[in-house]
Amino acid sequence: MRKIADHTDRSLIRQLTRSPGATIVALAEATGLARNTVRARLSRWDEDGTLRSFQRRVDPGALGFPLHAYVLTKVTQRKLDQVGEALSTIPEVTEVLGLSGISDLMIRVVARDADDLYRIAGRILDVDGVKRTTTGLVMREMVPYRIEQLL
Hints:
- There is one protein chain.
- The chain is α+β, with helices and mostly antiparallel strands.
- It is built from five helices and four strands, in the order αααβαββαβ.
- The protein has helices at about 5-20, 25-30, 35-50, 80-85, 115-125; strands at about 65-75, 95-100, 105-110, 130-135.
- The chain has a four-stranded antiparallel sheet with strand order 2-3-1-4.
- Helix 1 (about 5-20) crosses helix 2 and helix 2 packs across helix 3 (about 35-50).
- The chain is elongated and about 55 Å long.
- The relative contact order is 0.15.
């Protein structure tokens, strides 16, 4: 189980959310922590998965994929792992989450346009073990991904 963030962690995380590209020296100065403390915490967070991938910060629109959609998917339960593996081979699939409730998976996809989204949805439906999908087009982001309010 991952350790819950202490006051020092929270201070450093707050500064990282405000200045993600800050150097260790800049983070140390902004938080009043020693450089070695900052370096050690960042290293620990990299190792234990606390710090997520830089890829989350890149807007797919800048890469030519302005459409975002979520595909709710029902799958054959005994094929869940194979479905996940197959979905990972579709480049436009940016995230797959396992759910409880009315759907089994929530698949986040990006597309160049509506025709491209139709093609991607067809690829998802072609995956062995996928029974049914429902696609919702993201019209706008109302609350962006955030964590600072949790600190």
